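Bit of a strange request maybe. I'm writing a small parser for structure token strings and I need a real example to test against, not something I typed by hand. Could someone generate the tokens for this chain?
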Amino acid sequence: MTPSAGALAEALAALPVQVSAVEVRQTGVALDDYPGGPRPSSVVRLVGRGHAGEGENVAFTAEEHARFAADAAAMLRGPRGAKLGRVDAMIDPAARGYARAALEAALIDLAMRQAGTTLAALTGVACGSLRFVVSFAACADPAARVRSLRAGGSGPGQELKIDVDPTWGRDVEVALAAHAGIAILDFKGRGDAELAGELSALFPGTIFEDPPAGTAHSRVARDGSLSDARAVALALARGEAVNIKAPRMGGPLEALRALDLAARAAGTAYLGGMFEVGVGRRQARQLAALFCPASPNDLAGLVEDGAPPRANAEAAASPALIRLDTPGFG
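Reply from user aminoacidic:
Good idea to test on real output. This should exercise your parser:
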């Protein structure tokens, strides 16, 4: 039997870790649907005792990444030289948000490598089958985008998460409803109850994420407001599903605690992405494979330019087999 997400959080938090060097690599990656040009990205690499652990910062501006590169080492507690302690005590309490989440993920990765352990060793699960959706931003003709995606390799059965455009007309809504496999419609709080009602009639089994006030729909999920486990508990108490994102919650440990709450409440939880372009995506997919493998996780694999067609087809195919017996986290 797989240990609870809460038990894994406590086991990871208690791991000892030693950090002797901090490195941050900044880059920019062109991504579909990412607004404003290349997606700025940075990976923090923590080194200690002959091992290295990584975490990905998903901040949205180049300025935030530059500050992270300058401040990352100072965010870790301990002497100026090698810093030693438990994972959950190594980050300055003043550190917040995406920067904190990246550091915590890197500490977990490093601590696991220093301990010679894997998620499989900690949970008894060597691999998991992960269901995921492919998502895309709001556009004028979502039905055409669906046809293009499925013709381009995602396959006719690939489930989708689609951002809602409040300007859609009735013809656009009906054309989209003709396609099966629309798992989530993401309103991002936009639109009004009338639009939500029209879409509810066309998509009765689809999850409505962050719909506008006044929405009457049988399956509602929350995302943008879920900054910690307490917010997740409130959503679950209202009977809503929850889209859990470790970067927004300050790190994997709080995300695991939120997953534990969802399991205890018998609620629906799924993990979402925040435009991760590397190790952060792999880490999220591992947690989802462990604790919400059958949910519509917004964690499609990265499709790389220049990669062999077969590799990209496998990245786009759900479900995916996720290994949990490899060293470290992610």
